[in-house]
């Protein structure tokens, strides 16, 4: 499920962001211009906060929420009634306007490694609320007035991770199943970009 009213603590969010940074240390360090002075436990939350601050504001909603969500699993029913129940964060989904309007929007979609085989990644990306985002983003692009292309992109950085070939192929296979196609020829060790056209209502 997506985290609406949040039952996740700030510390939980920081821990998940730090876990992302530990999986992608070189990429996060490069994005933040880090020269080795800060720990990954600090860099991860800084990077995710930066994404959230730059995320698209869906003005078609009265409360103008940002296009940024936690992916959570609700607490189990066996949690004692006297203990404060908390959702368990398994991932993050953030949509930001691309730097160049012709590139549309960028999707940051990360699931914790231990939960990738559970199928939750696919369950979320086909969720009716996520599918409806296409309409919201198309409206956002029109309202923005800068000629933004109505498309959604995902990027695999040129700075990879351990077992990079396996990771790239798994990443490509996942998004290809959901209509994302290469924007250019995909070369090993280079940045990969996939995109799909936003669906209109």
Describe, in plain words, how this protein is organized in 3D.
With 201 residues, this protein is an alpha+beta fold. It has one domain (10-197): Gcn5-related N-acetyltransferase (GNAT) (Aminopeptidase), CATH 3.40.630. The protein has helices at residues 10-23, 25-31, 40-53, 120-125, 128-131, 133-144, 164-176; strands spanning 68-73, 88-97, 105-111, 151-156, 181-182, 192-197. It has a six-stranded mixed β-sheet, with helices on both faces. The chain starts with 9 loop residues before the first helix and ends with a strand. Mean pLDDT is 84; it is low at 1-6.
Q: Can you list the strand order of the major beta sheet? A: 1-2-3-4-6-5
CATH architecture: 3-Layer(aba) Sandwich
**CATH hierarchy class name:** Alpha Beta
Question: At the third CATH level, what is the topology name?
Answer: Aminopeptidase
Looking at the chains present, what oligomeric state does this protein adopt? Answer: single chain
From the spread of the alpha carbons, the general shape counts as: globular
Which percent band covers the strand fraction? Answer: 15-25%
Major pleated sheet:
6 strands, mixed
Mean pLDDT: 84
Determine the N-to-C terminus distance: 23 Å
Rg on CA atoms, Å: 17 Å
- Give the helices and strands as they follow along the chain: HHHEEEHHHEHEE
Tally of helical segments: 7
In the predicted model, the low-confidence regions spanning at least 5 consecutive residues are: 1-6
| Category by helix and strand content | alpha+beta
- In CATH, the homologous superfamily goes by the name Gcn5-related N-acetyltransferase (GNAT)
**Which percent range fits the helix content?**
25-40%
The count of strands amounts to 6
Our count of domains comes out at 1
